[in-house]
Write a structure and sequence with these properties.
About 0% of the residues lie in helices and about 55% in strands. It is built from no helices and 14 strands. The strands form 3 sheets. Strands 1, 3, 7, 11, 12 and 14 form a 6-stranded antiparallel β-sheet that branches. The radius of gyration is 15 Å and the shape is globular.
């Protein structure tokens, strides 16, 4: 599988109040397609109210593959993936952000990356090409906030996804 092939898209949310465990991002490939996760960016954009030492929180985050019969979460927003190239075709995969009822699977969910987020520092994950996470049709991929913040924080985030032909 050669990287650089296919089409690149972003899925974003801006200044969203986050106060619960949730699927920050959800992607589900179109029929006969594979999607690669190329990057995840998260940042606390709450201004000075969330910037002091007393507001510092360390939260668990996981990237999870849902392998079979996926039930999408709810409570968030359906998103239109945005092409990185001007005049490129629309994405075939579906995307959602900030579902407070998380997605489920009839299979065994696979945690592929477990990490932590310090809400005072932007979170950036750009895996090297040989470690990019792939998800195929009938599967879904979520970036899940596994621990609720002590109080609501305002987050912005972007997921970079490459859809292979």
């Amino acid at each position: 599988m050669a990287l650089g092939l296919g089409r690149a898209y972003t899925v974003s949310f801006v200044a969203t109040s986050v106060s619960a465990v949730q699927d920050l991002f959800y992607i589900k490939p179109a029929a006969d397609k594979v999607c690669l996760l190329e990057g995840v960016y998260l940042a606390n954009v709450g201004g000075t109210a969330d910037a002091g030492d007393a507001q510092e929180e360390l939260l668990r985050i996981e990237i999870i593959r849902l392998p079979a019969t996926v039930t999408v979460g709810s409570g968030g927003t359906a998103q239109t993936p945005r092409a990185l190239l001007v005049n490129d075709a629309a994405a075939g995969f579906t995307a959602r952000t900030n579902d407070t009822t998380v997605a489920t699977t009839s299979g065994t969910a696979q945690t592929l990356h477990a990490d932590g987020v310090n809400v005072r520092v932007p979170y950036v994950l750009i895996p090297p090409p040989e470690h990019r996470i792939a998800v195929a049709n009938a599967e879904a991929l979520v970036v899940r906030l596994q621990a609720a913040p002590a109080d609501a924080i305002s987050l912005s985030g972007t997921l970079y996804v490459r859809e292979l032909p």
